[in-house]
Amino acid sequence: MGFLFGTSKERFYMYAYMALIIAGAVVSLEVVINLLDGMYATMAIPTMVSTLLLAPKVKKVAGAYFARIDAGEFDEKKPSRSSDTIPSEN
């Protein structure tokens, strides 16, 4: 977790991690499952917020991309037959 909070704060993460391991060993399975569910919900919140914030930009760029596809900008160009042949040496 040093990449998130810096290496100076990494030991606090390790202490919390070890405390959760001990707590998980002594509490009931229902409490552990509820904690996991809560953590998953907490991780989903930033994902939903970023999706809502980025949706207008994605719509704008996607519209431009699909307009370019409709215009034929990405169609494969077939090489002409004259450029495929190798000139003979006479």
Structure description:
The chain is mainly α and 90 residues long. It has one domain. 74% of the residues lie in helices and 0% in strands. It has helices spanning 2-5, 10-26, 29-70, 81-84. The radius of gyration is 28 Å and the shape is elongated. The model has no long low-confidence stretch (mean pLDDT 85).
Order of helices and strands: HHHH
Q: Please give the share of residues in helix.
A: over 70%
User: What number is the mean pLDDT?
Assistant: 85
How big a fraction of the residues is strand?
Answer: under 5%
Number of helical regions = 4
As for the number of domains, it is 1
- Unreliable runs, pLDDT <50, ≥5 residues? none
Broad structural category:
mainly alpha
Note the gap between the termini: 71 Å
Could you tell me the number of beta strands? 0
Largest sheet: none
Labels describing this entry:
90 residues, mainly alpha, 4 helices
Q: Can you summarize this structure?
A:
The protein has 90 residues and is mostly helical.
SSE layout and pairing:
Layout: H1 2-5, H2 10-26, H3 29-70, H4 81-84
